Amino acid sequence: MNKTPNTTAGLAVAPYTSPTHMGRGAASPSGQPLRAKHLMRRYEVAHLTPSKTIEDFSKIAPAMPVFEDTFAAFGRGAILRTQSGMMAVEDLLPSDNVLTDHGYQTLLWHGTHGLKSGR
C-alpha cells in the first residue's frame, strides 16, 4: 500500500477562537472582524487505482454534510460477507469482493473520519 503524505484540503487550519471568548468588536491583526471556524475532521481514504494497486491518503476538511454523508455507509464493527468469508467493515481493503444486492462487487474505496481540533 502506498502512503500519500497528510495534507490540508486547501483550507486554513488556524487555532479556533470561540466568539464568546473574543469580546465585543474583536478583530484580526488586519482589522477584519473574527469569525468562528468550522469544526474540522481528518478524513482517511484507501482506494483502488486503475493499475489495481491500493493507495491511501488523509485530508483535513470541515465537518460539513458534503463530506460527512460520503462516509456514513457502515458503522465500525458491521459484518459483511465477502468471497473470503465474513469480515468486519474496518478490515476490508479496496479490491475485496463484497456481496451486494447485485452479487459480489469489487470494493473500490473505503474511508473513515474522526474529529480534529483546530489547534
Characterize this entry briefly:
This protein is 7% helix and 39% strand.
Please characterize this protein's 3D structure:
- The protein is mostly beta strands and 119 residues long.
- The chain has one domain.
- 7% of the residues lie in helices and 39% in strands.
- The chain is elongated and about 60 Å long.
- The two termini are 30 Å apart.
**Secondary-structure element order, as H and E?**
EEHEEHEEEEE
Main sheet makeup: 5 strands, mixed
Radius of gyration, Cα only, in angstroms? 19 Å
Number of strands: 9
Helix content: under 10%
Q: What's the overall geometry?
A: elongated
Note the main attributes of this structure.
2 helices; 119 residues; mainly beta; two-stranded antiparallel ribbon; 7% helix; 39% strand; five-stranded mixed β-sheet; disordered N terminus; single chain
